[in-house]
Amino acid sequence: MRVRFAPSPSGHLHVGNARTALFNWLFARGASGTFILRIEDTNVERSTRESEAAILRDLRWLGLDWDEGPDIGGPRGPYRQSERLHLYESYASELLNAGHAYHCFCSTAQLDIERQTALAEGRPAHYAGTCRRLTREQADVRIAAGERPAIRFRVPEGRDVAFKDVVRGDVRFHTDVIGDPIIVRADGHPAYNFAAVVDDALMEVTHVVRGEDHISNTPRQILLYEALGFTPPAFAHLALVMGPDHSPLSKRHGATSVSEFRSKGYLPEALVNYLALIGWSPGGGDELLPIDELARRFSLDAVGVSAGVFDEEKLAWANRH
Known about the structure:
By secondary structure, the chain is of the alpha/beta class. The chain has helices at about 15-30, 50-60, 85-95, 110-120, 135-145, 190-200, 220-230, 260-265, 270-275, 290-295, 310-320; strands spanning about 1-5, 35, 100-105, 150-155, 160-165, 170-175, 180-185, 205-210, 235-240, 240, 310. Helix 7 links the parallel strand 8 (about 205-210) and strand 9 (about 235-240). The mean pLDDT is about 95.
């Protein structure tokens, strides 16, 4: 069993993301599996090595170690997406040659108008398929003339995409509401869904455990797995961590990053135990356990589907005990 935590190094490690990392780590360690750390840094404008170093520092402070990653290497590296661009280029070419993808020359302004029109008419605000009908030869002529297109994935029409979520059960989407997503931007950098699929497939990830805000990405990713000839992993989508007002935990609720809680004097054992209890229970009436015991008891099947509220008073209680 192989799982991964794949943060974007564009800020501090949010406690919600820390809980995702923790659940992946507990799942891997409890099953004698492999925990991979991958850095998703293809957003060159926002990603920094300083943020990456801070995320690694916070994970180590929490007691989460990894078996493969950007600092220690491994058999499926490199583990920074910015060092894997040649792989995305190769697989994008494969999709283009097979007819599963096409070049898109639509401008941002044009796409905004289409999106606003669709919303005004009560239709799904996805890509209208303007460039779907271009032949490869027509696209090549425009590229030779100096235009820089994006690459879109050709979503199959008129079918369902279904999967069994380990946490949420059966989930089903119809391709009519998906639209053709961009997989490579006009600047040559891969879009999230495409890069994640290529990386998870090549790194032989068996279980993708992540926040429920990614659940709408899953049908696109499953279709990409199919088109590339890869077997999709199992998916488990975790309920989000909420603030006391039941909106997603954010700065307006106070401290939200691991580094902030560390600077306030909280112990890593307290934060780990508290995060583990948001949406899961180790059973036996125990609330405070060593991290290795948490791993021994952890099961994705026992993770709840309801959102958990982050209550700093309960964290403070755990810190005192």
